[in-house]
From TrEMBL:
The keyword Transferase does not apply. It comes from Coffea arabica. Belongs to the mitochondrial carrier (TC 2.A.29) family. It comes from the Eukaryota. Solcar repeats lie at residues 124-211. One of its GO terms (cellular component) is membrane. It is a multi-pass membrane protein. Keywords: Membrane, Repeat, Transmembrane, Transmembrane helix, Transport. It is found in: Membrane. This is Mitochondrial dicarboxylate/tricarboxylate transporter DTC. Its main location: membrane. The keyword Metal-binding does not apply.
Amino acid sequence: MDDSEGFTVEEKKTPNSIEVSSYGVYHRNKKIWPTLKPFVNGFLAGQLTLLGCYGAYWSAKLTLYVAEEAHDHRNAAKIRTALHAVRKNLPHWKLFQATYATAQFGSFDILTKKVEAANGGLRLTLYQEACCGLISGGIAGSFYYPFASLRASSSQSAETQINYRNLFASLSHKTRSEGLFALWKGSGFYVSRQMVMNMGLLTSYSRSVGYFSESVGLTKFQAQLGAGIVSAFFAAACGCPWPHIAAIKRMIQADGGRKHSHRDALYCIWQVFRPGGQFKIYSEIFKSFLRFTPYYVMQWLNLEDVRALVEEKGL
């Protein structure tokens, strides 16, 4: 009797222990996946956007070769060279874009959810969302800069480039010769530009989607398309001043015979606003807007499609 009762109790404990164990594994997975999901969404959106834009760009370039050089017997050689460049650069660009988009969208989503939880479920203010965009841009720019600088060095002359056999060989070579932090040497200007561009891009999108869908009454796709165009405009507007600021900074540094010291800021302002000077900060905003719009619109649409697919699969 006692043995049978003991056996019965033991039989009841075993399923319970298995149940608790499996629940613990499930609970841990349930905690991990929501954290990883924004980064996975950003990775997939970046890859899809890159393949679309890269393929369209090189198709247009090859078509231009054919149109302009049809009378030239070297046309076939040029097309082969272009195709070789596509094959050589696509893996690197895929890695660059995967790194940037993953850090960009993943960190922004995590930050906005943390701030929303701190607000008690209330929507983020414009200031809070802008701060999240700045931080997200800083994270993405910091991750992306080593790849961008190595790619820039690979396009220089043979005397100045750093053993560019492939990306990882260049990373390891530069780390061994100059140290780990040399990968981020001179990254301040690039990262700061990415911060303000991402602030304009990410902050304007969600608010534009809400405005177009609720106030204007557009469909979901139309609202996303319009919000993508608006976010591309703000990204261009925030990013346009930085090349001109860099040009003024280089001009000051090249002027070795003059000591600007504490008047550097005033000198920069004078160079910007003086008659006929550098007050063309926003003269190229339309050109930048046209250049950014196709890429960012495609990126936002891909991200929304990936999010919808993930939700549809119940992940």
